[in-house]
Write a structure and sequence with these properties.
about 450 residues, alpha+beta, 5 helices
Length: about 450
């Protein structure tokens, strides 16, 4: 007798479908799915760890490029910088980056080494924060070329300067070995030289070039070179600090540049004159505001000695401010948060206004962009709309220290702008920050 097949359900039995293909047990299927999920989780975990490792590596390289190579410190000072702690290790009887100095190890999260930073122990400078307006009258070294043109003569148009290789931004230092001190002198020498080739000594960036230029005769019978030059500049700014030790000052927070070329004006000499602020034009998005003032050219209050990308520097005949000297903040002490600026909006007397430091940048090569500022004081916003032209140099105060100066405004947002560290300005003024005597250590 033939019996039909029945599944007994015993262990090891095999179920059959109508096509008689074997089917695995459900337990084995669950195990396969579990192993698949584990593989996917492992791959995902590996991907996350890899991304985190690359991100951490990128952060280390970023901090290496942004952290400064040297910091000024005072004895026993604890330093925190850009989220990483700098642990100070005394280096005795050893020459480091700074001879007989100290060495700092910048670490991320307290354990991951980023870079070594030379720590120079110095005496903290004390400076008088100002905020008073001042007028600048500056003569350039030589004559700066601000434009090239043509000379219309009987034989058509000619471009002597262009043909000689002169470029916009060049500084003409001498004409046939005669030192140039003004544009009028250059015009006189050209007229006297006539159509004879002239030897020009040109300053172009860091290089000096000698060019031969032959002036052309125009239809009025005058010899011309076919160029426009500028030999002086004048404007209004704000004093940042006064140093009572040597009567020196720093102002503007940025250099005096030519309005046509954008190049830093080559400095020869200059003077500081009294200015009286008469009012302000309110800034709006896309259109910067401006402080208005009157020059009192008969009242000279000091002399200019230098024009640099970080500001203008010189000496004053007397203390310009009623403020008392306060400690200067080192760059690593500047932090985000509330601060104040000193600004003069009327007359010659500055007042304090509230701001917020939104960002601090420790890159050493970003002059006048060390900080991003935001004006928060309702009174200042009502009168000026934020930062306006003429406020450049306004001192920034935080935690009882002089932090820096206002430098630029964001054209599309006049409530915000850039600032520069006062440490940078003081160093570039030529003032030698005195090193502490560690001989006893």
């Amino acid at each position: 007798m033939v019996f039909p097949y029945k599944n007994t359900g015993h262990k090891g039995s095999v179920k059959r479908q109508s096509n008689n293909r074997p089917i695995k047990e459900s337990g084995n299927m669950d195990a396969e799915k579990g192993r698949g999920k584990m593989k996917k989780c492992f791959k995902l975990l590996s991907l996350v760890i890899g991304i985190a490792a690359y991100g951490l590596l990128f952060l280390v390289f970023y901090l290496q490029s942004t952290l400064p190579n040297q910091l000024y410190v005072t004895s026993g000072q604890e330093i925190r910088l850009a989220g990483g702690q700098i642990e100070v290790e005394e280096v005795m009887g050893c020459t480091t980056v700074e001879k007989s100095g100290t060495l700092g190890e910048a670490k991320l999260m307290g354990f991951l080494r980023i870079k070594s930073i030379a720590l120079k122990e110095v005496e903290r400078p004390w400076l008088v924060p100002c905020g008073e307006p001042f007028g600048i009258k500056m003569l350039t070294q030589g004559a700066m070329v601000i434009g090239l043109g043509s000379v219309q003569g009987n034989n058509g148009n000619q471009s002597p300067a262009k043909n000689a290789g002169v470029q916009v931004g060049d500084i003409i230092l001498s004409y046939n070995d005669i030192v140039i001190s003004s544009s009028s002198q250059l015009n006189r020498l050209t007229s006297e030289n006539g159509g004879t080739p002239a030897k020009l000594l040109i300053q172009r960036g860091e290089k000096q070039l000698t060019l031969s230029l032959t002036p052309a005769l125009n239809t009025q019978g005058e010899y011309q070179m076919g160029l426009w030059v500028r030999d002086s500049s004048a404007g209004i700014g704000t004093l940042t600090y006064y140093n009572p030790i040597d009567q020196s000052f720093g102002g503007l927070g940025h250099g005096v540049c030519d309005v046509d070329t954008g190049e830093l004006m080559p400095f020869q000499s200059g003077e500081v004159v009294e200015v009286f602020i008469t009012g302000a034009k309110k800034g709006v998005n896309g259109i910067p505001g401006e402080l208005y003032g009157e020059f009192h050219t008969s009242v000279q209050t000091g002399v200019l000695t230098d024009n640099r990308t970080s500001g203008v520097y010189g000496t004053l005949y007397s203390k310009p401010s009623q403020e008392q000297a306060i400690p200067m903040a080192f760059r690593q002490e500047v932090h985000t948060g509330p601060a104040e600026i000193l600004v003069t909006l009327e007359g010659i007397e500055p007042h304090r206004y509230a701001i917020t430091i939104e960002k601090v940048n420790q890159k050493e090569f970003l002059h006048h962009r060390d900080m991003i500022l935001k004006i928060t004081d309702p009174k200042l916003l009502e009168k000026t709309g934020g930062i306006v032209q003429g406020m450049s140099g306004s001192p920034i105060l935080q935690d009882g220290k002089l932090v820096g100066a206002v430098t630029h405004v964001f054209v599309n947002d006049p409530t915000r702008g850039y600032g520069i560290f006062s440490e940078t300005m003081l160093k570039e003024s030529g003032f030698a920050i005195k090193q502490q005597d560690n001989a006893a250590a």
